[in-house]
Amino acid sequence: MQDLNWNDLRYVLAIARSGGAHGPAGRLLGVNETTVSRRLARIEAILGSKLFQRSEGSLRLTDVGHRVVERAERIELEVEAVKEMTGGTKSAVAGHVRLTSIPVLINRLLFPDLKRLYKAHPDLRVEFIAEPRNLSLTKRDADLALRFARPDREQRVIARRIAQLKYAVYGPSGRKASPLPWITYEDRMLGLPHAAWLHQAVRADGGVASVVVNDSELALHAVKAGLGKSLLPTFVGETEKGLSKLSGGEAVLERELWLLVHPELKHLARVKAVIAWIEAVVRGRVRT
User: Fold this and answer.
1) pTM assigned to the model
2) First to last CA, the chain
3) DSSP annotation of 182
4) pLDDT, mean over the chain
């Protein structure tokens, strides 16, 4: 019987993190799709169990597959820790970090300062996952998360509030507030404070929203296109060209910004570097 090794488990993790797709898994590993397929067949033969099964046109983890992935992720963390402990990386800060957040925070807060991070750490790369859903850090869908709400279900994460984001009403430059219709969010998002605030504002005006969106980045573009007014973070409104503040000096809403990290990743040099960078960016851009 052949032995299972760490490289085999890397293939399993890559396939799982690519949603069962061999092509994207191959790109993560730097090999072609055929190699991924052959390697998976070899691994399943060694284990004598199917790790993935085809369902509705895609591959999904079996019960055994889920257990193998869970243990492989623990091994991955230990391998990474050994590399850092023994200087097994090209520099003190090297490798990839997966960061998830909503598009407006990535595009308007982090991207403008990304060159500074890469200049300080040339061997570091951040993979940004712009996703309104809360991806799981415990399942290693991402290493870090920048979110508006403190986690209540993911207990195995370290969460720290890093800012209090202020919101104001903005419209296109040169337009008065009164004739502008509202740009608001779809009803299924009413559990979110900014969406609820806009819903009440539309009702108070006795009108109908001109545009309904599901993302703050879309609301920003709709305002800049002259389609109406909406609620936006002030760090965006104060720096984005083509906007005019319509709600006066005080913030109309505030939301907490939280930084989340998997507890077993917090000691890694590359993760600590990205955390320090995010905190510095927030301190420089967000007025508390």
Assistant:
1) 0.74
2) 61
3) B
4) 87
Please indicate, yes or no, whether residues 29 and 108 belong to a single structural domain of this protein: no
CA atoms within 13 A on the CB side of 140: 20
User: How many residues does this entry show for the chain?
Assistant: 288
Domain of residue 241, residue span: 90-288
How many helices and strands in the chain, by DSSP H and E? Answer: 10, 11
In contact, 94 and 123? CB cutoff 8 Å: yes
- Alpha carbon 179 to its chain centroid, in Å, reads 36
257-283 pLDDT tens trace:
999 998 888 888 899 999 999 999 999
Q: What are the tokens at 62?
A: 């079996």
Residue 77 tokens, joined? 């963390």
- The span from the CA of 214 to the CA of 218, in Å, is 7
Q: Domain boundary at 85, 102, 137, which?
A: 85
| Domain shared by 80 and 98, yes or no | no
Does any domain span residue 230?
yes
Do 200 and 102 belong together in one domain?
Answer: yes
Structure confidence at residue 219 (pLDDT): 96
Distance of CA 244 to the CA centre of its chain: 29
